[in-house]
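Self-study notes.
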Amino acid sequence: MSESRIRVGTVGLPRRRGGLPAAVDIVELATGRDWPPKGQAARKLRAGIPSAVGFTVQLSRFLAEQPPAGTPAVGDPAGYGRFEPSAENFGLWERCLEHAAALEAEALVLLTPVEFTPTRPNRERLATFLERARRPDVPVAWEPRGPWEPASAAAVALDLGLVLAVDPLRDELPEGPVAYLRLGPFAQLGTRLGTYDLERIADAARGHPLSFCLFETPRALDDARTLREILAGRDPGVTP
């Protein structure tokens, strides 16, 4: 296998951005999680971050769930959510893609809520929506919340051309050219991840030509920095 390209970073921009490229080389942004802002705002954000740091971008949550009552929305608020093949949802999808393009995003991230369960109607609506929607030129990572079995979610992702986002400390990564490792806030509350856990993450990431490793842990920036040290073959100096 050829050498893997592994992008390591955090979910959300760190508060302290000085020396950012030394700590991370990718950031997952939630700037489009509600209504994606205009392209000018995205381009301004992109210009303010060192070019060595790339972005992945979360898709709007209103593709999967309806906006709260009274939320200003384009068109009929009832047309949003549940991946209905509506003008509102397709218009929102296009806004998401335009936002991602303005940020030069390397991947999109679809987070579905616990209410989006693995029922046949939900799976069929998602499949229909993605079949009709314009697909981006970058991977779309999908993290289903709720009662999805890993094997079932992996099969759905494969069938729909999505990259299943996986926490490799809990579940096995599906095979494929792209992996999206998403480490949540469960890990050792208030502390860094230990060296052993980070080595396991590194081994999982190396199994794919392209891997994204995004930390949303309590010490996310430290975890990302340490993982990069491990991947570079340097002693991270972290107590297991």
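Second protein, same conventions, sequence then structure:
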Amino acid sequence: MSNLLEIASLAWQQLYPNPTDETAVSREEFITTAKVQYPLMMWVQARNTKNQDGEWEVPTNILAQSEPLSIVNNEMDISSLKILRGLPNEMWLVNLGGLTCECQYVKTTANKASIFCDVEDGLSALTKTYLVVGNKIIFPKGTHADKLPVLYASSGIENDGLYEVDDVVGAMIQDKLIQIYGGKIGQEDSSNDGKSN
């Protein structure tokens, strides 16, 4: 498993094998671009796998489980979680309440919640609905407990500032960095005459 710092550094060294203090793009810019490309490449991988296999599960190397978070007025604040929100259809939210929870939580939408309003629509008393709105999870029918853990796709496992990534995704990011920066750097016009130096 690689991390984004290593991937960005390798791509930078490939394009600038003998860097100077006047190198067109800094290593830090490559690292920042790699961090932006990471969620995009995870999205691409998810879509490709789902199209090919018919399903896609969040990879275990990016799964994280929060401590139980408080429910206040049927809302949970998730702003403290580092979520990989770029996954399609809010697939980042894997589970609410824990894997051995006596209550099941199923996703709904604002439209469905309005349509069904007080109608249980065949759901048992141990099944509750939720919907994600910004940095909150709203439970229209309440919850079975005052606190619930969240199993989710993290935006990268941070380890001393390094984001560990799957090797396949890492290779995609490295290729993209070289594609973005390889031979496409504008030349400085220090004389301001409309011509590069």
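Instructor comment on the second fold: The CA atoms of residues 15 and 183 lie 9 Å apart.
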